[in-house]
Amino acid sequence: MNRAQRAQLALLLEVAGTPKPGNVDRRREYSDLRFEHFLAGAVGAYDGLTMAVGGSRLGTAFERAVSGMAEQDGGNTQFGALLLLMPLVKAATDAELTATAASRVAAETTVADAADFYRAFEHVDVAVGDPPSDLAELDVRRGAAAIPAIESRGLSLYDVMAASASRDGIAREWVGGFERSFDAASRLGAAVGPVPARAADVFLELLAAEPDPFVAIQHDEATAREVSKEARAALDGEIDPESLAADFVAREINPGTTADLIAGGLFIALERGVIRV
Amino acid sequence: MNRAQRAQLALLLEVAGTPKPGNVDRRREYSDLRFEHFLAGAVGAYDGLTMAVGGSRLGTAFERAVSGMAEQDGGNTQFGALLLLMPLVKAATDAELTATAASRVAAETTVADAADFYRAFEHVDVAVGDPPSDLAELDVRRGAAAIPAIESRGLSLYDVMAASASRDGIAREWVGGFERSFDAASRLGAAVGPVPARAADVFLELLAAEPDPFVAIQHDEATAREVSKEARAALDGEIDPESLAADFVAREINPGTTADLIAGGLFIALERGVIRV
Predict the structure, then answer these.
(1) Predicted confidence band at B129 (pLDDT cuts at 50, 70, 90)?
(2) Cβ contacts (< 8 Å) between A71 and chain B: which residues?
(3) Which of A197, A226, B20, B61 could bridge B56 with an S-S bond, Cβ 3.0-4.6 Å?
(4) Chain B positions with Cβ closer than 8 Å to A
């Protein structure tokens, strides 16, 4: 299995972990966003992941991965996970898979990578928060229409991530040394049992440790904090994780960023050989 | 998504369908053969599937697919499905995806393809039935050791399949015009609902229609016939398919050939566009 395939397997193992309260997993899904959309998303993302391993520019590889991922009817399945995987895959290929090397890959992205990133939003609708009003012309939802503004300001993809790190959990990884992804990998390696069960356990741990930024966007900060408390209660045995999963689905609470971090952690753990399937 | 990716997606959708009584699916697994082994098997099979699309000899592509599939700890996950997919993938690439074209691909296999097929058994333990005593030196469980006997007899892979068609359901497809695979594809196209649900429904239909050869090998012909009757009862609403699934797992009844036929049918149906994800 090559590196791009390990990244693909990380996407598949992430969605196989159950219960991951609030997210699509192999036992829970939404009528319009189902388990098989994630399978097809992982299959379709492969060419872009291969490009990242093959030395393509990060932005080019990312846009290709998203375009392939989007060839299914469920909409956005793994946009955030792929954005997190790209610097990890490139670091593993160019240097070694460390937080320092991944941060260097992130820091070395260019304006062209930023343009590709904006183009990727043309392939799929991604739920994101509103940017501050002074950054409205950089709103990712403008897609390719925002590229002239990016270019005239000379913003690299790293700059774009830095500008949204306060709202977006993946951007925070990019500018914060990929701390939570590597933490997830360590936890996955230290956990016991089959890999999908570990993924589910570590998902709850990460969710309990920090409010999910996507829940904050979807609902509000208070809900995101409440969700973290509920995850803590599930870890402490006060709530059955299966009940919590059903409850989150009913309340449309989707801690999607935490799921993305699990995908990143799974890739690191597979790459380092601390988990195996 | 390219053709090899559609074949890979067919493998993933097959195992996502639930309940598929007696087989690993996303809700049921065995302690040593789990859902994630099938995910990793599908990821690992991709290079061999790509070789089949790229014009490699069928045997070469098959051996590569099996070798990649086997890079996980669960053992044999998709050997039979890959053996069924290979002539279908090559027919779609070289001509068109019809039963006639697939049968021509099968008929045109060579002694070298047969040797590759035997080599594939070196990568993974596959449960097969005993050959007739006069064919003992061709027993696939001998792996590469049987190749001199294959070569001295000048047997093509098609000849090998023809010799085991009475016991093996995939061999029967190879020499019988891939009738059940194309039937499965039609049924999948005609069914309603999400693709994994269709796969589960058509699995029961195929199992009810014909005893599973793998169950006959694993247990005996009488058990295989009984299993078909129980599948019929589930289709008729007399048995809850979920109970039947739990019951088959407890009795270690694995209608694996029927699952392989579903994978073949899913590929044909994806290729023809009669199902989509």
Answers:
(1) confident
(2) 1
(3) B61
(4) 1, 5, 8-9, 12-13, 16, 26-27, 34-37, 39-40, 43-44, 46, 68, 71-74, 194-196, 276-277
Distance between CA B219 and CA B67 in Å, rounded? 28
* C-alpha to C-alpha distance for B38 and B33, rounded to whole angstroms: 8
Cα separation values, B202 from A70, B180, B191, B207, Å: 27, 11, 8, 8
- A 10 A CB-CB count for A218 gives 18
pLDDT digits (tens, 9 = 90+) for B207-261: 999 999 999 999 999 999 999 999 999 999 999 999 999 999 889 999 999 999 9
> What is the distance, to the nearest Å, from the Cα of residue B274 to the centroid of all Cα atoms in its chain?
20
Which residues in chain A have Cβ-Cβ distances shorter than 8 Å to B44?
1, 5
Secondary element (H or E) of residue A262: helix A256-272
- Per-residue confidence band for A185, with pLDDT thresholds at 50, 70 and 90: very high
Question: Quick one: which of B51, B27, B26 has its CA closest to B38?
Answer: B26
Q: What b/e readout covers A128-162, taking b as 16+ CB neighbours within 10 angstroms?
A: beebeeeeeebbbeeeeebbebbeeeebbbbbbbb
Q: Judge contact between B62 and B83, C-beta under 8 A.
A: yes
Taking CB atoms and an 8 Å limit, are A5 and B44 in contact across chains? Answer: yes
In order of A14, B148, B192, B241, B245, the CA distances from B237 in angstroms are 35, 52, 18, 8, 14
Nearest to A35 among B9, B26, B276 (CB): B26
Subunit contact B34:A9, Cβ cutoff 8 A: no
Q: What is the pLDDT of residues B90-113, one digit of tens each?
A: 999 998 999 999 999 999 999 999
pLDDT at B242: 93
Q: What is the CA radius of gyration of chain B?
A: 17
List, as one string, the DSSP characters of A202-214.
Answer: HHHHHHHHS--HH
Give every CB contact of residue A181 below 8 A, 6+ residues apart in sequence.
A84, A88, A173, A261, A264, A265, A268
